[in-house]
Design brief:
By secondary structure, the chain is mainly α. The chain has one domain. Helices cover 76% and strands 0% of the residues. The chain contains four helices and no strands. The chain has helices spanning 7-48, 53-57, 64-81, 89-101. Helix 1 packs antiparallel against helix 3. The mean pLDDT is 86.
Length: 102
C-alpha cells in the first residue's frame, strides 16, 4: 500500500533524509582523519620502542580501531542508505509466495 504525502510532508521527509546523509559523510570524514592520525601515532610509538618502520606499519594492533569503529560506520551506512541486504523486497515477495503455497 502506497502512502500519499502532501508536498510539505515530502519536503520534510526529503530534508531529514539529506540531513542523515550529510551526517554520515561528516562521520566518515572524521573516521578517516582521526584513524589516520591515531595510526600514525601508534606507528611512531612502535618505532620509538625499537621496531623497524615495516614492523610498525604492518602491526595489526595499530589498525584495530579502524576495524571496530568501521563496524559502526557500516551500520550507519546501512541505516542511512537503506541497504536491506538480507530482507529486501525480493525476499519479502518470496516469503509471501512461500506462505501462500502452504
Amino acid at each position: 500500500m502506497k502512502t500519499q504525502y502532501t508536498e510539505e510532508q515530502r519536503y520534510i521527509l526529503t530534508k531529514k533524509k539529506v540531513e542523515k546523509i550529510s551526517k554520515f559523510y561528516k562521520h566518515l570524514v572524521v573516521y578517516v582523519v582521526v584513524n589516520t592520525f591515531l595510526s600514525a601515532i601508534f606507528i611512531v610509538g612502535d618505532i620509538n620502542e625499537g621496531d623497524t618502520f615495516t614492523e610498525a606499519f604492518f602491526n595489526y594492533h595499530n589498525y584495530k580501531i579502524w576495524f571496530f569503529w568501521g563496524i559502526g560506520v557500516v551500520f550507519q551506512a546501512l541505516n542511512v542508505f537503506g541497504l536491506n541486504i538480507f530482507f529486501n523486497k525480493d525476499w519479502e515477495q518470496k516469503k509471501i509466495n512461500e506462505y501462500l503455497k502452504k
